[in-house]
Structure formats: structure tokens, C-alpha cells
Amino acid sequence: MNRRRDAILIGAVLLLAAAPWLGGAYALRLGTFACMYAVMAVSWNVIGGLAGYPSFGTAAFFGLGAYAGGVLLAKGGGLIAALLLSGGLAFGGALLLGAVLLRLKGHYFAVASLAVAEVLRELANSATDLTGGGMGLNIPLATLGGAGPQAEARFFFLAMWALLVLTLVVVVAVERSRLGFGLACIRQNEAAADMIGVDTTLYKSLAFALSGVFVAMAGTLYAGWAHYIEPPDVFDVLYSVKPIVMALLGGLGSTTGAVLGAFAFLAIEETVWRNSLQIHSGLLGLLVVVLLLFLPQGIVSLGRVSKAWVARRA
What we know:
The protein has 314 residues and is mostly helical. The protein is built from 16 helices and 2 strands. It has one domain.
């Protein structure tokens, strides 16, 4: 990232941190979702943007984290332990699964990664004694020692915001590391990358694991925040689609773009949902398509597009 993009990214994240003091419960809810969406988009960008593999596995990681952490929280475990458990399971599982799935390419990999969420959803439905099955899993309010609703909402916002900061720090470090260079080589030409000594299987597996670990932690925070989860909710296929749209909306391959795309997508989604409840899904899709058509390189290219337009008008 260049300095200008670094400044934009830092400014956007710091501005988001002011959400609890700019409004009431609605601002907290919106801010928490903004952080969660940004974690998803930035995480997906590691495998989809840096490595060039179109993963639809975000819903699988989110649901796994929600249930792994949620079950521990429901049994009286601490939030830190739940986050470590969900992150560890997602990282280890994705590392092993990636070694197999990432031998596939293109739409074959996309379909295979999407199937993982369906398998986990069926497992969650079947493990009634542990997950509650189709009845869902209740996570008691006592998780935070009986804090009031407003204090609890502020806590989960700050926790999700801290997770976003951690995700950004790790992903930016990866981008500037040997792993990031290797992933860029894989995206450009995987066969050539293999020939120059890049361990493509290991690098792709690490990218897949990194795309899941923070999403799983976000799932755990969501479970604690919502106090109730069920398989159709946390394994929703939209959790696999939305991060891709956010990354494309912001600018594929750009961490700053992924964050801005997540914020923009949430703003569009919320505006459309509030004003066009009956047709919000279709209208939201239409708006996103129009934006992608006029800004094919995402929001991060807006400055360049504006300069080109002004130059043509001069």
C-alpha cells in the first residue's frame, strides 16, 4: 500500500471507533456490523485478492467460529478462550483442508469451498446435544457478568473493532512479507511461481487458513453478541457472497479497498433495506452491479477516475 492508502485506511478505522459516542444503540449495531463485514472482506482478500483463488468458504469459517466459540460460552467458558478455540480450529482445519481443496482451480475450487459450509451446517443440525440442532443454541446474558444491554453492546462493538485492527495488522504484514510476494506470484502465474521455487501448496494453504481464522473469531463475537445462533443463520450462503462483493466494490487485491468496500456495502444495504424492504435484495444487487460497472477497479480507483474525467473536460 502507498502512503495515501495507508492514511485513508487508518483514518477510516479510527473514525469507525467513534461510533459508540456518535449515537445510541443503532450506531453501535451499525458499527459492529461494519467491523464484522470489514473483517470478512479483508480476510477473503487474502485468498481471493492476493492469491487469486475465488473462495466461497467464508460462511463455513464464520459458522464454525460461531458454534465452536458459542458452545464454549454457553458452557460458561470465557470469551478469550472461545476466541482462541475458534481461531485455532479454523486455522488448523483450513490449513489441512486447503492442502486438498486448493489442488482445484477456478469454479471447481469455488464450488468445493461452498460445499464445506453445507457440510458443517448439516453437522451442526445433527449434533443436537452439543449445538441444539435446528432449535438453535442459546448463549446466556451472564456471559459478561450481567452487564446492561448498552454496556454489552458497546463491549462487543469494541471487541469487533479490536479484531478488525488485529486482522489489518496481520494482513498488511503478510502483504509486505515473503508470503505476500509468493501469493502475488501465484496469482500472476502459478506454474511459473512453482518453477522459481515458491512452495505453492504451502503458500495457498496458509492464505486459505488466514482467510478463515479471523472470520471464525468474528463468528464467536457475533454468537456472544446475539446470544442465540442457529445453523441457517451463521452458515448463510450470503456470508460467502457478501465479502466477495465488498472486495470487488472496494478494489480487488487492496486491503484498503476491502475495508472501504465493506463500509460502502453496509451503507448501501442499510439504506436500501430501510427504504425498500419488500424489494431490497433485488434493488441492492442492482445498485452493486451499477457501481461495479462504473468503477470496475473499485472505490480505490475513484481518485484516478476523477482526475481522468477532469483532464478530459479541461
